[in-house]
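Standup notes, structure subgroup. Blocker cleared on the zinc ion input:
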Amino acid sequence: MLNRTEKNEEMNLPPRLRRELKTIQAMVEIYCRRHHPGRPWTLCQECDELLEYARKRLGLCPFQAMKPTCGKCPIHCYKKNMQARIREIMRFSGPKMIWHHPVMALWHLIDGMKKTPMRPVPRRPNNESTE
Ligand SMILES: [Zn+2]
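Run returned:
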């Protein structure tokens, strides 16, 4: 197991995002273990890159502690190819999370039920909803 949680930059993330990152990490690991096996298995370079990218995106997320789960986020901040990769991983690992990491899966569900905050960037003036 990689000791990613020890990394300094994670300590700067609010708990909500740290949880999100852990969930992403768990999903990437489930996926990689299955699709990119090695002996002994460690996260392959490709998946490691993706995880590093996810970490950076979370650090830059304008919602921070208010962040909705990525599936519900109004901002799709990933680059096209990274988004395709993470989507594939989530499609594969998402349903398995409840078995591998039930507590994390539950948290993700709870986080997913929270109301999505408004986009933290100026909205177009002719938009009819004005919350
Ligand atoms: Zn991999």
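Discussed briefly. The pocket of zinc ion is lined by residues 32, 36, 44, 46-47 (CB under 6 Å).
Next: hand off to the docking folks.
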